[in-house]
Design goal:
104 residues
């Protein structure tokens, strides 16, 4: 499944469903698809998303240092996966518009 994020302030972004749902939950939403967030809720959602991504990155670094999982050469970190969504949210906040997502 693919999920596409839409807002009037930025180009649409499509992600694999599992990572998209994870990021939606990080924003403080239930993770339902389709879904939306109002413009006034976006600053808090962006703050939560950044905090959760940072936390996950720290956990990955700790796990790596302790000899945890080996990452394949195709591994993409959560911060790189979240970057397009963070940029979309920043644009939506700047223009004070809502963000919606749905299966594509």
């Amino acid at each position: 499944m693919l999920i596409t994020f839409e807002t009037k302030a930025y180009a649409n972004i499509t992600m694999f469903g599992d990572i998209a749902k994870k990021l939606i939950k990080y924003m403080g939403h239930s993770g339902t698809v389709p879904g939306a967030m109002l413009a006034e809720d976006l600053p808090k959602a962006l703050e939560r998303l950044r905090s959760c991504v940072q936390s996950e990155m720290v956990n990955e670094q700790i796990n790596e240092q302790e000899g945890g999982q080996d990452k394949s050469e195709n591994y993409v970190s959560i911060d790189k996966r979240a970057k397009p969504l963070i940029e979309l949210l920043e644009a939506a906040i700047e223009q004070k518009v809502d963000v919606m997502w749905d299966q594509s």
